[in-house]
Amino acid sequence: MKNFFKSKKFYIGSLVLLIYVMVNFFVNQTHAELSSDVLIDRGNVSEQVLYLSDITYRKAQVGWGNISFDKTQSNTSLILRFNNSSTVFNKGIWAHATSTIEYDISGYKDYAYFSTYYGLNTTAGGNGNGVKFYVYTSKDGSSWDLRSPENPDPLKGVDNALYLKIDIRDANYIRLYAHDNGANASDHAVWADAKLVKEGYSDNAMIPVEDFDAYIKSRYTSGAIKDDLKLILLQRTFIRNVGQYQLREFLDSDPKNKEVVEWLLYNEEVLRLWTIGGKPNGTYARSLQVLSDLYHTYKDDLTNENLTSLGNKYKDIYLKMMLSLSLTHSTNVGLWIGGNQFSSAVVRYQIYKDMHMNGQLDTAMFESYTVDEMRGVMITNIDDEEILWLHDYSKKFSTAADRFNPYKYIRYTLSYSYYRPQYYTQENYAKWDQKYNLSKYNITYKSGKPKLWIVFEEGAVCGGLSKTAANLYGVWGYPARVVGQPGHAAYVYLYNAGGGKFAWQLANSAAATGWADTGGSATNGWGTRYATNSGGIQSGSYLLLAQEAQNEYDKYERSQLIMLLEDVYKNDKKKLERIYRDALEEEIINLDAWIGLVNLYITDDSKSDEDLVELATEIAEVYTYHPLPMYDLTRRIASKISSPGYKSRLIMLQDETLRKATKATSKDTIYYKEVPVIANAILGVYDSKVATFSFDGNNAGKIALSRQLQSAQVAWKYSIDGGNTWKDVFEHSVQLTKEEIESISPEKDIKIHITGLPMTDANIYTIDILKGVFPSGVVSIDDLENKVKGANSTMEWSLDPNSGEWSSFADTNPTFRGDVRVYIRKLATGVYTITDPVYFTFTKNVSSDTNRYIPRAGLKVVSVSGTSAGNMNNILDGNLNTAWHGPKANFMTGGTYKASHVIIELDKPRYVSEVDYQPNPSALANGKYPAGKARSLEIYVSMDGVNWELAGKNTNLANNSNLKKITLDEAKQAKYVKINCPVVWEHGLEAYFSISIINLYENPSASEVPTAEVSYNIVNATNKDVVAELVDENRPITVTNNGGSKTYTFRENGTFTFEFVDGEGRHGSATATVDWIDKRVPNINVTYNTTELTNEEVVATISFDKEVTILSTNVPIVENPVDKSKTITFLENASYIIEVVDSVGNIGIHNVTVDWIDKTSPTAEIEYSTKNITDGVVTATLNPSEDVTITNNGGSPTYTFNENGTFTFEFVDKAGNEGTALAMVTWITRVPQYDISYSTKELTNKDVTVVLTLESGYILVNNDGNNTYTFTDNGTFEFEYIDANSNLGKIPVTVDWIDKTPPTAELKYDIQEDKVIVTIINPSEEITFADGNGVYEFTKNGTYELIIYDKIGNRGVLLVKIDSFKTPSEVIPNPEPTPDPKPNPDPEPNPNPEEPTKPTNPIVTTTKPVTNNDKTTKPVVNNSTKPVSTTKPNSNEIVTTKKPTTEDKDDLNYKKYSSNGVELEIPNKIVDDNTSLVTGSFEVTNELKDKLGNASEYFDLYIADENSKKVLLPIDYAFKISIKLNSNKEFVNVYEVIDGELEAVEYEKANGKILIKSNRLGKYVVSYNKNENTVTKDDKTESNQKTFVILGIAALTILLFGVIVYFIKFKK
C-alpha cells in the first residue's frame, strides 16, 4: 500500500481528481452569478468597432448592379434570416454575387478581429441555386489565405445566415468573396454587420445561451420548473429568441432602452407573461421597441395598485395590454381597406385604457384575458382614429345580434370602389359628416385614405363583410379575426361560454362542413406547425384546442415553462421524452408536448410498431373531441409504422375515435355542435377503413385493403362465414367469386385479419354488411299507361321471381299489359344486399273499342285559369302525390269562388268519350279543412281552341278524393278539351279547385279511318336513343312506310309519321314526336367582376344553361343565399376545373382561370446618365419592372440632379399596387486634376505605355490599382477611381497610333533564258529593302524570301518561286522547230491543277485582312518570321503564298563552309562554287542584351559571291549550321534575331558544338552566362553522380554501424 501511494498511478489519479474538483468549483461559482448579472457591460461601443461600410475599399467587383453600403441596391433595409426569423441589419454591404470586395486594413492595427454575419437578403427568397461565401486575408495583397470554411454549403434567402469571427492581427488586407454557385439569379449577397473590432470587444449583449444551458443542466432534474430556476430559464429563452445582434442593436440605439430590458429581464412575472404570450407577429427587435415606447410613456400605470369594480388590479390589466401590444404591433397593424393607415401602439393603448375606464368594453371578459387572448383585441385591423367612432356608431343597433352583424352595415355587392371622388371632395364633406359624424371623432377626410364609412356606402364582398365584423367585435373588446374558407372569407369571435370558459364562434360561414373547411391557426402556432391541411380539411379547428388550453391557463403556463427546456436538451432524446411527459403531467392537451413526443418516437429506431400504436392510443384518448389534431398526430405516427398488422390497428383506432367524436354531447365538450361536423368531414375525406367492399361500382365484388396498407407487401385473410373459415390473400385486393358474393349476408358480414397480429376480436376488422330495404314511396305504377314509374338502373323486374329470371330497368321502359303482377327488387349496392322483391299489380284496361284510354304522351296542358299554384304539368303526370289548384277565394275578405278551368290540347283530333278527374287528396283550406274538390264539372270540346261546345257534365260529384268519371253523351271529335269547374265543395274560410289526375278516353270506332297510338320505351328526359312503337290499333293495320316496321328509333328529337292501311284499304297515320332527348353538353358560363389587372379579389360568377349538379369537389364554389348565384372568389391567381352533369348524364367541363391578380408592389431600377464623378448634372431614369404610372414628378420617368441628393419616384402599376424607388446621387463633385503621359506619341509598331498622374485623395480601383497601362494595339482604356465618399470616376485614355501591320507588295517576274529577274512593285506603302534595291536576279530554281520594311519597321516577307530552269535530265538536245498551232479559242483546262502552266512574267502578290487602324489600310501578309512558299504562278496572276516545306534529303551533296568557329553545309545544287561564308557580328539593344546574358556571342551569317555580294538562297532545303561553344562560359540557349525580336531555335548539342538545322541564314545569338568557375551542365551531371555515390556509401556505413550497436545492446 505504501508503494502504491508512492507510485506514478497514485500521483496521476490525484492530479486528475484535483483538476476535476477545481473545474466544478469554478463552474458552480460562475453559475451562481448568472441570474443576478446576465447583461454584459460593453463600454463605449463606438470606440471599439469600425464598420467596413464606413471605410473605402481597395477594389470591388459585383456580378450585377452596384455595390451598396448599409442598404440594398434598391435602398431598402438589409434583412437576413437569423434564428429562423427575419433580422434587419443597420450596417453591412450588399454585393450581388459573384462579387469580390477587398480592403486595405494595414492602417487599422489597433483592431484585432473581423466579424460578420453573411447570407442572402430575404428578397432572394428560395430562388436561385444559392451563394457560397468565402473570407480571405493577406499580408502582401497578392497571396491570400482562406479563413472561412473551405467547402461551404450554398445559402439561399430562406436559409439562416451564418456568423464568422477571425483574428486579423497578422493581416494587412481582407477579401470578401461571394460565388454565384453557377448561376447568379437572385444572388443578393450581404455581409451584414461586417466590422473590425478591438481586443476585448464582445458582440454579445447578454450571457450566451451556452452558459445558461450549462447552468440549467447542473440544476434541473425533472418535473415542474422550480421558482429558483424560472427566471434563468426565461432569460435563456429571451436571448435565444431575440438573438445577440438584435438585443445589442436595441441597447445601442438608445440609452433608455437598457432600462426596459432590465425591467423585462429581471422581473420574472413580466418575462413569463411576455414569453408564454407567444411569438411576436413581426420581429423581436420591433417588439422590444414597441415595449420600450409603451413602458416609457405609461410607466406609472405599472404601479397602479387600485382595484377595478371586479377587484382586479389596474396594473395587472395594463401590463397585459402593454405586453400584448408589443407582440401585435411588432408588425404593421392598420385599417384593412388600405391607404397605409397604421396603428400606433402608444395611441391604441390609451384608447382601450379609456374605454375600459369608461365602461365601454365587456369588463368581465376584458379583465380576465390572458396575453394571448388580449392580443386578439389589440390586433384589430382598424386605424386608431376609427375605434371609438365605430364603437359609438354601432350603438344605433340596440341588440347584439344586429350590432355585430356586418350585413346591417354593408350590402353584398361585386361592384364597389373605395376611391370614388365623391367620397373625398370638399363640397361633399358636410353631407358625409352629417351622416357619419366624422368631425366629432376627427376622422381623416383625405383622398387616398379610405375609411369604413365609405365601405358602408359602397358595399363589399365576403372579405369586406367579415373584416368589418372583426372590427365591430374588436372595438367592443372581443377578440375576432377573419378566417378563410374555399372561395370565401368568414370570421370567428371569442365569446363567454360560461363556467369561466371562453369559446370561438364561427360566423358568416359558407362551408357545409363549417370548421372543417375553415383555415387559420392559434397565436401560439397550433394549427400552423402541425396541421396536414390535406384532403380539403383546413386547420381552423386548432383554434378550439388552443382556446381550451387558454381556459386552463395556469396549467398551460406551467406546462409551457417545462417545454422551454426542449431547446436546452435538444440533443438528449432520453431527457426530451421526460420533458414532454412532465409537460403533459401539467397540461394533458399541450399540443407542443404531444408533437414533441411524436417526432421523438418516429425518429427513434428503437421504438417498435407496438410502441407507436400505444402512443397513438394515448393521443386518441386525449384528443377524442379534437378530431383534427388527433388525426394529424396519428397520421404522423402511421407514416413510421411498417407492419401492416399494426398499421391496421392504427386505422381501426382512428376510425373508432372519429366515430365516437361524431356522437359528442355537451357533457363531452363545449364544442359539441362543431366536433361531430369536423369528425364526419374527416371520415368523408380520409381512408379510415382497413378494407372496403362494394356489391357494385368499379370494384364490384372486390375486397380491397385501405390505401394506407397498400404501400407495402401485406399478408391478410378474409372470412365471409362469420369467422369460421378464412382465406389467405397476398395481394392488396381480392375478387370474390360469384358464389362467394351470393353467400355474403348481414348476419355474417365480411371479416378481415392482418397476418402477424394475434387472432383476437380487437385485431379483426369487420366490414358491416347491411340488409337491403326496398325504398318506400319511390316506385309506383300507372295502370292506364301500363308503366312502372320511379324505377331506376339499380332495380330489376320479373314476372316470376322463382324462375330466377330478372330484367334490368336500365335504359328501358317496359310496358305491362293485361292482368299481371310485376315483382321489383333493388340490386345490391355498396354494403347493402339485394332487397326482397315487392310486387305491383297491373290490370287489364277495361276500356273497349268505343272507350279507349288516350295516352298522356299525346296530351298537353296549354292553359289554366287565373293565378294557380303548383306546376300545371302535374295535371297530366299520373301521380296522385302532385297537384295543381286554381285561384283561391278568401271568404274573410269577401271573396267568392269563381269558376276555374283547364284546357288540354290533344296530339291530333280524336273522338273524346270520357274524362276522369281526381282531386288533390292533400288539399286543405286554411291549413286544416279538406278542400279543393269539384262539386260540378263541365266538359267542353273544340277543334280550334276558340269555339267551344259543351259535350258533357256532372253537377253532383261526391265530396271525397276518389277518382270520378264524366261520360260524354256521345263521342265528340276534338283537338282541345276544356275542363271547367263552376262549383266546388266549400269548407272553412277559403275555396278552390284542385286536380291531381286527369285521364281522357276516346271512341276509336267512331273514326272512319284506321288509328293507332304511339308508345315509347323511354318517356322521361334522356341522353339515349328513344324507340317509338305503334300500339292500340283500332283495327288491324299494315304499315306502308318505315320498311313495314311498327317501331322507329329516334337518335335526336323530332317527329316521324307512321303510315298504314286497314284491311279495306283505308289509310291512316300516327305521328311519333320525341322532344325529351338531350345529348347536349351543359354549357358553363363564367363572368368576372373584373378582367383588368387588379390587386383586389376577383369574383367569378358561374352560370349554366340548364339545371346541373356540380361534380367537382375541390372547387370553392359558394352559393349566394339570397339570389342563389354561384361564385368563386379568387384571393390570388388560381385555376379550377369545373365538372357538372345534367339530369340525364351529359357532362360539361370548363376551366376557370384567374391570372390577373397582382398584389405584388412594382419595383424599379434607377439608371443614371452617368455614375462617374462629374461636375455636371446627372439624370436619373426610372426603369420599372412592369408598366406603371408615375404619380409624382409630373409623371416624368426622369429626374435631373443639379447637386447631390435623393429623389423618390412614386408609381402605381396597372393593378393599383404602389411602389417607390429612390434615386440617390452622391457623385456630383469636383472632378480631380490629372495628367496622362505616353511612352511615345509617334507612329510606332511597339506597345505604348500610358502613365496616369492623379490628384491626391483619390484611389484607383481597377487595373490592380496601377497607374500605368500598356496598349498592345489601338484602343481605349478607362482608369476608374473613387473619392473619399466612394464615388466612382473614370478617366478614358485612347491610343490610335500603333501600327503593327506588315507592308505588302507585288512581284514581277522577267523570265529569261539563263536567269529570272524579279522586281518588287506596287508596295502597299513606302518601303525599304533588307537586301538590294528591289530588283533581284535568280539563276537557280527554288523558293526565296525577299524582306521589306515599312517606315516604322514592320517587316514584310515576299516569297519568290523559281522553277523555270531545267535540270540536266530535262534538257532535250537540238529540238526540231514546230509550226505554231492554230489558236484555240476554248483551251482545255489544265488537267492537273497542282501543276500549273509555266508562267510568263507573272505578277505575284499576297493580301492580308484589313485592320481597324486609323492609318491607311494596307493588305495583310503573313507576319511570321518563318518563310512561306507559294504555288507556281500562272502568267500575270496573283498567287497567295503558303508556307514551304523544308526538305532534308539524304541523297543531296553538300558544299561545306567554315569561318570563325562556324561550320556550314549547304546543298551543292543551290550555290555556286565561287561562294564563301561570311560570319559577321551585329549589335542589339541594351534591353535585349539584358535578356540574352552578359557573355553572349552574335553571328550574322550569309553567303557571298566572288564580288562579296550577298547571295539569296532558296528556302526549300535545310542548311546544317555548326557553332563551336566557348568552354569557359555557361551555355544557355540559341536564338535567331528577326527584326530585333528573339525566337528560340531548336538545336542539338554534342562534342562542344551546337548543331542547327534551318532553311535560311541570318542573325543568330549563342547565349552564355559568363562564369569562369562554373562547370558545364554535363560536368555538373557527372559531379552530381559522384556525390550521390559517396553519400550512398556513407549512409550504408552509418546504417550498418547502428545495427551492430543495437544488437550489442540487446544482447547485453
Low-pLDDT windows of residues: 18-33, 1369-1448, 1572-1585
**What does the main sheet amount to?**
7 strands, antiparallel
Structural class: alpha+beta
Number of strands: 86
Count of DSSP-assigned helices: 29
Rg, Cα atoms, Å: 53 Å
**Percent strand:** 25-35%
Which descriptor suits the 3D outline?
extended
**Spatial separation of the terminal alpha carbons:** 34 Å
Helix percent band: 10-25%
Mean pLDDT: 85
Descriptive labels:
86 strands; single chain; six-stranded antiparallel sheet; 29 helices; extended; alpha+beta; seven-stranded antiparallel sheet; 1612 residues
Can you walk me through this structure?
The chain has about 1600 residues and is an alpha+beta fold. It has 29 helices and 86 strands. Strands 30, 31, 34, 37, 38, 39 and 42 form a seven-stranded antiparallel β-sheet that branches. The longest helix has about 35 residues, at about 1575-1610.
